[in-house]
Design goal:
The chain has 8 helices and 10 strands. The chain has helices spanning about 20-30, 60-65, 75, 85-95, 100-115, 135-140, 155-170, 190-200, and strands at about 5-15, 40, 45, 50, 55, 80, 115-125, 145-150, 175-180, 205-210. The protein has a 6-stranded parallel beta sheet, with helices on both faces. Strands 3-6 form a two-stranded parallel ribbon.
């Protein structure tokens, strides 16, 4: 039997707190009917709480809950940092060096264990990982198509266009984007989405209505046909 095709995406956002984890989990659920084994990856997670005697990160736990297979924790979350601050500051405080080459190697191993891997970046696309490297460097090293989460609030057009330009400047493909209505009081949300549909020149995968506790299982992401595969 021929090997099942593999697929992987890098999910970034116009800022922190715009719904990257929600969209990453929803993407895992959307891919699950088409790929036998789907798994999420949070390469760098900053901010932990104590759970069952162990330090845990909420984003990492959410991605694991949306995954259909279990992998070693050092693969789906290579860097776990205690403080909820920018990764480069959290890493310095923890005495840790974020090594992009190691993260790329972990992703390569995940693709051997799973058929679809969704990688959620930290913060925005250019978030610092060290004094010399950013999340954009990580995305470029992984070389994956990018899904952009746009948090709909005042200023989002500038943030979305700048992020899309930065993604393409790295030679990466903007494979799709998601509009997340994080500010219900924002005016002209439909006009903003229409403008971005024209300017971003990438498929709109979903427009997520504002919810106090959104469930990634209930979000309907419209996957392009090229992302779909017939399961065994």
């Amino acid at each position: 039997m021929a090997e099942h095709p593999k697929i992987s995406f890098f999910v970034t956002g116009t800022d922190t707190g715009v719904g990257k984890t929600l969209v990453s989990a929803a993407l895992l659920h959307a891919l699950a009917p088409h790929y036998p084994r789907v798994v999420g990856m949070k390469p760098v997670a900053a901010g932990t709480t104590l759970m069952d005697g162990l330090q845990a990160n909420d984003d990492v736990l959410a991605l694991r809950a949306a995954s259909s297979c279990r992998v070693p924790p050092e693969l789906d979350n290579p860097v776990l940092l205690p403080d909820a601050v920018s990764p480069h500051i959290a890493a310095t405080r923890a005495g840790v060096r974020i090594a992009i080459a190691h993260i790329v190697a972990c992703h390569r191993q995940l693709l051997q264990l799973a058929d679809a891997v969704v990688v959620e970046g930290a913060g925005g696309f250019m978030v610092p990982l060290s004094d010399t490297e950013t999340g954009a460097d990580l995305a470029q090293a992984l070389g994956l198509p990018v899904v952009l989460v746009v948090g709909l609030r005042l200023g989002c057009l500038n943030h979305a266009l700048l992020t899309a330009a930065a993604i393409r400047a790295r030679g990466l493909t903007l494979a799709g984007w998601v509009a997340n209505h994080i500010d219900p009081s924002m005016l002209a949300q439909g006009d903003n989405i229409a403008f971005l549909q024209h300017q971003l020149a990438a498929p709109l995968l979903a427009s997520i209505a504002h919810q106090s506790q959104p469930d990634p299982k209930t979000l309907n992401l419209e996957l392009p046909l090229a992302w779909q595969s017939t399961p065994h």
